[in-house]
Design goal:
Structural class: alpha+beta
CATH architecture of the largest domain: Roll
Oligomer: single chain
Mean pLDDT: 97
Shape: globular
CATH superfamily of the largest domain: Diaminopimelate Epimerase, Chain A, domain 1
């Protein structure tokens, strides 16, 4: 089974053309994503047939659980599909079906290969029932107290097709004990489907930095849906304007959201290597 390893700002994925394949994808994801005994990656992405768009993305986390959405993962899928001839877009835009709905992407190419993608991440879901969060409240909930291990965290819950809890602090994000607190927030009873957890420091009206603990993965170098949720949460709290540069350990992402409609995420995508899995 042939695969391509790609990454978007260090958030790395194994990508497979699954249009004519049938495997136990959940089990295979856990094995292939193992960084010691497998290919290594934050997730496994499948390029599938779609009746609603040019291509459909399925994504499995490194623990084998299936996720609804990944912004960085979608850029990897887009590059895989266009560079590999699965999709031949008219112009520079086409549609991708995801667990979060059908989303529009716009590609930038160099020497015939995709180098970056501007992607619609869809509108944020702010109703606690849709995120989901186990509370009764009117949307949006900009401040939710989460108590973990003696810490009382004031988070903003957002769904970008998958759940996020965004925590703002004034100190550098590099100093935050993410490996201690992250898994406790992910599995907190307030989040019935678990949650991704972002730690953010706003540096100005158009700049912020973020680290992320991803549901089913752990800390990653970047998270596109987490970046989008951070843009939404920061604007809801009045901390940023309509566009923001977000610095993550794996690089820099550009976000746009004017308070209504779709969040727009733009970032680079890189192919690391190709291989063949013995299965």
């Amino acid at each position: 089974m042939k695969f391509v390893k790609l990454h978007g700002t260090g958030n790395d994925f194994v990508v497979v053309d699954a249009r004519a394949l049938d495997r136990e994808w959940s089990e295979l994801a856990a094995v292939m994503c193992d960084r010691h005994f497998g290919v290594g990656g934050d997730g496994l992405i499948l390029a599938c047939k779609s009746d609603r768009a040019d291509v459909r993305m399925r994504i499995f986390n490194a623990d084998g659980s299936e996720a609804e959405m990944s912004g960085n993962g979608m850029r990897c899928l887009v590059k895989f599909a266009v560079d590999g001839g699965i999709v031949a877009p008219r112009g520079d835009e086409f549609d991708v079906e995801t667990g979060g709905g059908v989303l529009r992407v716009r590609i930038t190419t160099e020497n015939g290969l995709v180098t970056s993608v501007r992607e619609s991440m869809g509108p944020p879901h702010l109703d606690p029932r849709e995120i989901p969060v186990a509370i009764e409240a009117v949307a949006p909930v900009t401040s939710l107290e989460v108590a973990v291990d003696g810490h009382r965290l004031d988070v903003t819950p957002v769904s970008m097709g998958n759940p996020h809890a965004v925590y703002f602090q004034s100190s550098p994000v590099a100093d935050y004990p993410l490996h201690d607190i992250g898994p406790l927030v992910e599995h907190h009873a307030l989040f019935p489907r678990r949650t991704n957890f972002e730690v953010v420091r706003v540096l100005g009206r158009d700049t912020a930095e973020m680290r992320v603990w991803e549901r089913g993965v752990g800390e990653t170098l970047s998270c596109g849906s987490g970046a989008s949720a951070t843009m939404v949460a920061a604007r809801l709290r009045g901390l940023v304007d309509n566009a923001m540069e977000l610095r993550v350990p794996g690089g820099v992402l550009q976000l746009e959201w004017d308070g209504e409609g779709d969040v727009i995420l733009t970032g680079p995508v890189v192919e690391s290597f190709r291989g063949e899995w013995p299965a």
